[in-house]
Design brief:
With 441 residues, this protein is an alpha/beta fold. It is built from twelve helices and 17 strands. Strand 11 and strand 12 form a beta hairpin. The relative contact order is 0.13.
Length: 441
């Protein structure tokens, strides 16, 4: 019998993480909206590298924060806006320019499938307040303005046609159509938010609409939740879990509840003891940034290494795509997704459906050894290899099976222990995977 949740914290907090979220490991995040037309931000830092203060917000590398970056009236984005569009050109004036005229949701779904992703999360409303779904609570949405299409609806259909799960991001506490005070410090994300009960009801009702219209597998709330509406959250979560049995929510609800924790770039603390998710862009921005050249994006090698490290330590990777305003995905982003998918096609058996091994990640000189387990089988991933021949000590026992079919290797038993000899490593294999059957039994 299906479990029914009551609208109390005691009931909601009995919810356990569905297996699929721990099994799937890799999802695609999408930031697409009005901000995709100006598509501008300076190339500064990863979140977490500097204090999240005036220096950060006036030099914000997130193109999707364009509204605030011109609202603070200083810094590179503001200067670019004045020079390019003029001081009287408002953010909302970009809306008619975002037409999505080349958008083919089926092509996106196919690309995400090729990338090896198992779930997708779309920004249904970012901080600018514009909704990528039709709502009866506002006319400021994608059927009335801009693309004049149900973005969330069409993409949900395309993603699920590929066998992937679909989730919904929503900016819970920030909405600049309600309160547009400029944000200069992290604390102002909450303090400058709209303080009214009316906005708390508005956000609550939007979530109910998203649940009813699309049955999203993830509710991905950002920044926080209106404090005036905190008492409504048990009702919202109970409604969601009762409607979407497989559903999960993140923990950005003023830390009152979450099925998993978050890390964004270098910001946030996580551990192997609790399920977590890393979100980040392929570059420094989530929204498309015209300043990000191919060299600005994470390399395929570093992308593969990051995925392995995250998964080995109980995390998922939610990797962001920032489409252009016309609906096309920049070539450098697509190429990296396809390359990651090719690596996963060879090594995915040690990634998908895996859990933390009893062996922690270890460093041996320039090499990083990461471990996962799938049921009783142990998987070893070796990162940092040089082209050609390599040798490294092994701290595990059992017969090794290479996941890459062209790899030549052998294991030597010495008085000092076992040594793995790799004969023909190629740099475009990135991280090498090995299986050791029943080594976690």
């Amino acid at each position: 019998m299906k479990k029914q949740y009551a609208a109390t914290w005691e009931s909601v907090k009995t919810h356990s993480l569905p297996d699929w979220f721990d099994d799937y490991k890799f999802g695609i995040f999408i930031h697409w909206g009005i901000y995709s037309f100006p598509a501008y931000a300076p190339l500064t830092w990863e979140l977490g590298e500097v204090d999240i203060d005036e220096q950060w917000f006036c030099n914000n590398p997130y193109a999707e924060w364009y509204f605030n970056s011109i609202n603070v009236k200083q810094g590179p984005t503001y200067e670019h806006h004045i020079k390019t569009y003029g001081k009287d050109f408002a953010y909302r004036d970009f809306l008619p320019m975002w037409k999505a005229e080349k958008w083919q949701p089926a092509e996106w779904g196919n690309l995400f499938k090729r990338a090896g992703a198992k779930y997708v999360v779309l920004t249904t409303k970012h901080h600018d307040g514009f909704c990528l779904f039709p709502s009866r609570y506002t006319d400021y949405h994608c059927l009335n303005y801009g693309p004049k299409r149900d973005i969330m609806g069409e993409l949900t259909e395309a993603v699920r046609a590929q066998g992937l799960k679909m989730g919904a991001y929503y900016s819970g506490v920030i909405d600049w159509t309600f309160s547009n005070m400029p944000i200069f410090t992290e604390s102002q994300n909450m303090s400058n938010a709209c303080p009214t009960y009316a906005y708390a009801d508005y956000a609550y009702n939007h979530y109910k609409e998203l649940i009813d219209l699309y049955q999203p597998s993830v509710l991905w709330n950002d920044i926080g939740w209106p404090t005036q509406g905190e008492h409504m959250l048990p009702s919202l979560f109970a409604y969601y879990y009762n409607q979407v049995e497989e559903g999960v929510v993140d923990n950005r609800w003023n830390d009152l509840w979450g099925d998993f924790k978050h890390k964004e770039y270098k910001h946030g603390e996580v551990s192997r003891e609790q399920k977590w998710e890393m979100c980040r862009g392929l570059g420094l921005s989530f929204g498309y940034n015209q300043n990000e050249s191919d060299d600005s994006l994470i390399s395929v090698k570093n992308l593969v290494s990051m995925l392995v490290e995250i998964v080995a330590n109980n995390g998922n990777l939610l990797l962001n795509v920032g489409p252009r305003a016309d609906g096309t995905i920049p070539e450098g982003q697509a190429e990296r997704l396809i390359a990651l998918g090719e690596w996963l096609a060879v090594n995915g058996e040690g990634i998908y459906y895996s859990r933390c091994s009893r062996y922690p990640t270890e460093k041996i000189g320039e090499l990083t050894l990461s471990y996962t387990k799938v049921r009783s089988d142990l998987y070893l991933f070796v990162d940092g290899l040089q082209s050609g021949k390599n040798s490294l000590p092994l701290n595990i026992y059992g017969e090794l099976e290479a996941l890459h079919p062209e790899l030549s290797f052998w294991v030597e038993n010495t008085p000092q222990g076992r040594v793995l000899h790799i004969e023909n490593y190629q740099p475009d294999w990135y991280v090498l995977g090995f299986k050791i059957a029943n080594a976690e039994a």
